Amino acid sequence: MKEERILIVEDDLSIAENIQEILELLGYVNIDIANSANQCIKVIKKYRPDLIFMDIKLKGDKDGIELGEIVKQMVDAPLVFVTSYSDPTIIERAKRIAPAGFIVKPFNTNDIHAIVEIVLYNKRTKPTPEVAVVHGNESPFLVVDAVFIKADNAFERVLYDDIFYIEANGNMVTIFTKNRDYSIRKSMKEIEDILPSHLFLRVQKSYIVHLGQIESFNTKEIMLRQGGVIQVGRQYYNSFLAKLNTITES
Hints:
With about 250 residues, the protein is of the alpha/beta class. Helix content is about 30%, strand content about 30%. The chain contains seven helices and 15 strands. The strands form four sheets. A five-stranded parallel beta sheet has the order 2-1-3-4-5, with helices on both faces. α2 packs parallel to α3. It starts with a strand and ends in an 8-residue tail after the last helix.
């Protein structure tokens, strides 16, 4: 009996069960199946798998490559893409997130056996990186708890904790804070790059929120502590959920 936990992310149940059956024949007993991005994220949070099989052509807002990018930020587990596509564009996209390998449909027991044994062997024998001592969230700036925003003829210090959210409107953005609002000519991408990613997250094309300002949320809306309500974009929800520590019934 092999103790490694393996997650299969596949929306075609027959294919998922086929992979599961092969893994069980190989002696693996800790196997989970997820049929969507949302379920995948829940399983990863709960079980922290050692290996993930990911169908590239997942149905829903995110395909397997986009979901793989989120997964890579959540857990240090090798990712094996399952695909029936040999389109060079898809392969190039997949290569950018450095998967541990590919399985091409239709596959057989030998294909699964070979990739699992090689990938898990590499994972077990990979040198453990030296642990670096990091003091807080390292920043190249001397002031690490605030940003200075140009207003009129001076730069005003604004604490990160005093920023509620940022809203885009054309080629302008408005930064809503505890004391006042700032409208500046910047793109949302530029604002994302300026603000620390462990505190701020883009949840829609036109909105970035301070994670510490969230009071509650559902699949469509985020309720802020100061009373504001922000709509969550469907394509952003899974990235948003992956960044938060959550407790669910299942």
